[in-house]
Write a structure and sequence with these properties.
By secondary structure, this protein is α+β, with helices and mostly antiparallel strands. Helix content is 33%, strand content 13%. The protein is flat.
Length: 95
């Protein structure tokens, strides 16, 4: 989507984060709303699998609702918990 409607397959592949995962990729935290109408949740699933394939530590949370760019979260919605989940995960990295 960021590349526009006329992006070639090569252009899209060159900018696909899951294709750039290496053994030097840092631990990663993923949060994605399944109802996101801007970025397909399949992108986060692909990134998760790429990280797992390289044995990179990853924490992933998929929320039923939250749409795109839920930012700091939505009060009263499960997606609103992602900042707390991130902090708990980050604390575990430094332990």
């Amino acid at each position: 989507m960021l590349l526009g409607d006329k992006a070639s397959a090569d252009q899209a592949a060159a900018r696909s984060p899951e294709r750039r995962v290496t053994s030097r990729t840092p631990p990663s935290f993923l949060a994605h709303a399944i109802d996101d109408r801007t970025v397909d949740v399949a992108n986060s699933f692909a990134m998760l699998e790429a990280l797992r394939a390289r044995r990179i530590e990853v924490e992933a949370h998929f929320f039923a609702r939250g749409d795109h760019a839920f930012g700091i979260g939505r009060q009263g919605e499960p997606s609103g918990l992602w900042p707390e989940l991130l902090l708990a995960w980050a604390r575990g990295l430094s332990a």
